């Protein structure tokens, strides 16, 4: 098969005509498959638009070129569609999961998630996958007959399980337990938390890793946190940079970095395709059911590439996520969310009117979760504005 050509629909992909349906029954669309309809609902949701003003890794520097959750999600979707096309999967479902995977992230990147997890520690903590499920099942208010987006079972399954099963086959949860939002929803609409997700969801998860690694390198270079030649400490990136320098000996660093990112994405996509092809040939799944009931995921990096990818993550952790500039800003960002959470707890009337209604009848845990939902939906910019409204002093975060 030529590179770029779509494979014929594979028997192990999800068939939109055989979807397990929606929690609230709806008449089918005359013009769109159930999975295309899901994707369109995600794109038109308020939570998706807010991703434009939520940072991917919270690094403020000159210019508007660093990633946001929105641009990252679009990049994940591009990689995921490329993989799905080659494997003969349903591209609409794959795109839905790629675009929805960050809907539950709070403002200020990883700092925001850590802050909310601490604020909600006594009430089940904070998990961005569980929050994404809340967004698409209850927090979006766009339709007259239901809260949420009423996505198909396959889309909800992929949002929850794209990183693998959450329980053993007997239902026993791991050490961390099942995130509270997922456990509660699963009682209403069984997502089979013990099984693997569809290949479409597995592809979306690896597309996230590929886009994250490559584009954090790009953002780190743009922010001046490290230089292209600093990446030579890893054999994979050293080899790619060496090839770039041989072909383009006089290339400036900005173009060297961009070429490195492109080549890294291509290399990782090829690696996933190779390993998925090997595993599919061995497992011979004949349906999406076979995929879900297989003893291991069928999409993965080959072992040597998994080690190379882990080395990239370790490099980024040390040189980007733990960089003193980033750590300072992240610490201040966490403080902003701690302040907001405590203020709303002590003075619920400071919440917008639509978020105050009914709070007097709530338990402490329910009120804390409501506040957490409100803060998680904030953009970086709105969290700063809200802090400025409620407090005398707000960090500059630069």
TrEMBL record:
Any one GO MF annotation of this record? dGTPase activity
- A Pfam family annotated for this chain is HD
**SUPFAM superfamilies xrefs:** HD-domain/PDEase-like
One of the GO BP terms on file:
dGTP catabolic process
Annotated HD domain ranges read 69-213
Q: Where is this region: Disordered?
A: 1-32
Xref: InterPro entries:
dGTPase, dGTPase-like, dNTPase_2, HD/PDEase_dom, HD_domain, PHydrolase_assoc_dom
- Keywords, A to Z? Hydrolase
Tell whether Hydrolase is among the UniProt keywords: yes
Family named by the database record:
Belongs to the dGTPase family. Type 2 subfamily.
Stored NCBIfam families: dGTP_triPase (TIGR01353), PRK01286.1-1 (NF002326), PRK01286.1-3 (NF002328)
Q: What is this protein called?
A: Deoxyguanosinetriphosphate triphosphohydrolase-like protein
What organism is recorded for this protein? Answer: Bradyrhizobium lablabi
């Amino acid at each position: 098969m030529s590179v770029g050509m779509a494979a014929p629909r594979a028997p192990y992909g999800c068939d939109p005509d055989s979807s397990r349906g929606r929690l609230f029954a709806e008449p089918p669309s005359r013009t769109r498959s159930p999975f295309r309809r899901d994707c369109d609902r995600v794109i038109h949701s308020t939570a998706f638009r807010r991703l434009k003003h939520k940072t991917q890794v919270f690094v403020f520097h000159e210019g508007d070129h660093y990633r946001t959750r929105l641009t990252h999600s679009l990049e994940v979707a591009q990689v995921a569609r490329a993989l799905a096309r080659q494997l003969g999967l349903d591209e609409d479902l794959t795109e839905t999961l790629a675009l929805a995977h960050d809907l539950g992230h709070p403002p200020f990147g990883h700092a925001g998630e850590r802050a909310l997890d601490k604020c909600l520690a006594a009430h089940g903590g904070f998990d961005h996958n569980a929050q994404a499920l809340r967004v698409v099942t209850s927090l979006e208010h766009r339709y007259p007959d239901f809260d949420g987006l009423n996505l198909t079972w396959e889309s909800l399954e992929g949002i929850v399980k794209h990183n693998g099963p959450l329980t053993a086959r007997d239902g026993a949860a791991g050490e961390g337990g099942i995130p509270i939002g997922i456990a509660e929803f699963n009682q209403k609409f069984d997502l089979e938390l013990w099984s693997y997700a569809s290949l479409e969801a597995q592809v979306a998860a690896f597309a996230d890793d590929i886009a994250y690694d490559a584009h954090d390198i790009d953002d780190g270079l743009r922010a001046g946190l490290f230089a292209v030649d600093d990446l030579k400490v890893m054999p994979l990136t050293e080899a790619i940079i060496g090839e770039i320098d041989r072909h383009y000996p006089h290339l400036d660093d900005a173009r060297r970095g961009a070429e490195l990112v492109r080549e890294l994405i291509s290399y990782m996509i090829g690696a996933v395709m190779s390993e998925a092809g090997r595993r599919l040939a061995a497992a011979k799944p004949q349906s999406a059911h076979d995929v879900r009931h297989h003893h291991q995921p069928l999409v993965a990096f080959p072992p040597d590439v998994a080690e190379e990818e882990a080395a990239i993550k370790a490099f980024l952790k040390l040189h980007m996520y733990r960089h003193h500039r980033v750590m300072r800003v992240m610490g201040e960002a966490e403080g902003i969310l701690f302040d907001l959470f405590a203020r709303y707890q002590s003075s619920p009337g400071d919440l917008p009117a639509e978020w105050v209604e009914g709070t007097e009848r709530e338990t402490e845990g329910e009120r804390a979760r409501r506040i957490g939902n409100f803060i998680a939906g904030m953009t970086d910019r709105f969290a700063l504005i809200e802090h400025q409204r409620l407090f005398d002093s707000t960090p500059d975060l630069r």
